[in-house]
Specification:
With 233 residues, this protein is an alpha+beta fold. The protein has a domain at 15-26 and 44-98 and 145-163 and 172-230. The chain has four helices and five strands; from the N terminus they run E-H-H-H-E-E-E-E-H. It has helices at residues 80-87, 101-110, 145-150, 217-230, and strands spanning 15-20, 154-161, 187-191, 204-205, 208-209. A five-stranded mixed β-sheet has the order 1-2-3-4-5. Strand 4 (204-205) and strand 5 (208-209) form a beta hairpin. The protein is globular, with a radius of gyration of 20 Å. It starts with 14 loop residues before the first strand and ends with a helix. The model is unreliable at 1-24 (pLDDT under 50).
Length: 233
């Protein structure tokens, strides 16, 4: 069975996932260009693949949860599944979170202070501001973890809440550079805003709004996440 590489990020019910097989960066041409076709040898660059044995990665971020609330971090709320994931993975214990979700998410995605990637507040038009660090638009120069992993042999996908796409860009006409698919994720299923109706969500798949199926949003994104994973095994 082909080794898969999987990366996941969850916010509220958000999951972001990655599995291996990205295209290579420009490689030096290794064919031969002769005077005639017979004297020439065609060549195509090899796709970048993650090294053998590269791990599956599940990355989880929850909105509005106190640091010490869950049993995973010593709290009183019993979370056995999270406990097991943490036991076999990494826990971030020195990460700066903010009082609202978008800055925390932008910092986690880019590895930078939220203000330096322009998300000191929300990315929504009415809650952003025309001042340095406040316009809500993550610059393209500040690459995301999805872009880094994709360029190193991972396929990427996200499900759930995204929250760092400006409202004025969140239509089917785009532009899409600040959508998840413009920030390194091959696929996305969820909502672009900071909140949505859990039974009638403002639902997006890849780069188009789609009609929800009437079930609770958590069930829909869970099934989509599982289907992404299974098709990449």
């Amino acid at each position: 069975m082909k080794q898969k590489k999987l990366f996941t990020l969850t916010a509220l019910s958000m999951t972001v996932s990655l599995v291996g097989n990205a295209f290579a960066e420009q490689q030096a041409y290794q064919g031969t260009v002769g005077r005639t076709l017979a004297e020439s040898k065609e060549w195509w660059p090899e796709p970048v693949k993650a090294p053998a044995g590269s791990p599956n990665v599940v990355w989880i971020l929850l909105d509005d949860v106190g640091f010490g609330a869950t049993s995973t971090f010593g709290g009183e709320i019993n979370t056995p599944t999270l406990d097991q994931l943490a036991k076999n993975g990494l826990r971030y214990t020195n990460f700066h979170t903010t009082a609202i979700s978008a800055p925390t998410r932008s910092a986690l995605l880019t590895g930078r202070n939220s203000g330096t990637v322009h998300v000191s507040g929300f990315s929504h038009t009415v809650l952003s501001a025309g001042f340095p660090g406040w316009d809500g638009r993550v610059p393209s120069k500040d690459g995301t973890v999805a872009e880094v992993l994709r360029d190193n042999g991972y396929n990427t996908f996200a499900v759930g809440k995204y929250g760092v796409t400006p409202d004025e860009d969140a239509t089917d006409a785009g532009p899409f550079n600040l959508w998840p698919t413009g920030k390194g994720f091959d696929h996305f299923f969820g909502f672009l805003g900071s909140q949505t109706d859990q039974y009638k969500p403002d639902l997006v798949e890849d780069q188009v709004h789609v009609k929800p199926d009437g079930r609770h949003l958590s069930e829909q994104i869970t099934d989509k996440a599982i289907s992404y994973m299974l098709t990449r095994v």
